Each structure stands twice: as C-alpha cells, then as structure tokens.
Amino acid sequence: MVDKRLTPVARKLRRGSTDAERWLWTHLQGAQLDGAKFTRQFTIGGYIADFACRSARLVVELDGGQHADSAADGVRTAAIEAHGYRVIRFWNNDVLANTEGVLRMIAEELRIARNH
User: Fold this and answer.
1) Sheet harboring 47-53: ordered strands across?
2) Any residues with CB less than 8 A from the CB of 30 and at least 6 apart, and which?
C-alpha cells in the first residue's frame, strides 16, 4: 500500500543514499539477484523501506550505528510485516565488507519466499 504523502521523502532518500545503500543497489537493480525485481525507498504502511521485492514480499533494511538497540526499528518492522512483508536487516558495514555474504542471505530469503 503506497502512501502518496511519502513519495517526495522517498525521492529525497534515493538522491541521498548512503554508501552501503548505493553499493547494495548496484547488485540488486535490474533483477540481477535471482531474477528478483527490487525497488528502493518503497513506501509500506507509513514507512519507507530501503529495498523491497514486492513479488517475494521481502524488505531489506540497512542499518547504521544509530540503529543499535533501537526500539523504533521493532515498531517499524512490525508495521511493515503487518502488510505481509518479511523484513531482514543488515548492518551497513556488513554490506560494504561482506557483500557476497549479504547477497547469499538475501537470495536464500527469496528462495524461501518463492517456496511458500
């Protein structure tokens, strides 16, 4: 469910992506990962998800240090999951230092989603 009020915010976030978001996007765009089409800065349930594969109902969130022990992230995850999405999270430094491992984990989540 797209919240049109968040569209300008999502556009701004796309223009101001973090290094980790830009790097992961180079591997997700154009259905490069197992043929899955991802969208970045996708609005769901009043929130803007970093990346979403709508067909697999999968959201990938990237977290920086400000997210450590964040109660708000739990609320955000619950709200997104209430819309039928599964949320997986990675630290920014994991995306940058262990890209292949992160991509393997996302690919596994895509396979699980396709088998349900």
Assistant:
1) 39-44, 47-53, 58-63, 86-91
2) none
What CA–CA distance (Å, rounded) separates 38 from 83?
A: 17
Look up residue 20 and give its amino acid.
Answer: A
State the DSSP H helix or E strand holding residue 72, giving kind and residue range, or none if neither.
helix 71-81
Q: How far is CA 8 from CA 3, 49, 57, in A?
A: 10, 14, 23
pLDDT in tens, the chain (116 residues): 555 666 555 556 556 578 899 999 999 999 999 999 999 999 998 898 999 999 999 999 999 865 455 677 888 999 999 999 999 999 999 999 999 999 999 999 999 998 87
Check: CB of residue 42 under 8 Å from CB of residue 83.
Answer: no
**Helix, strand, or coil here: 8?**
helix
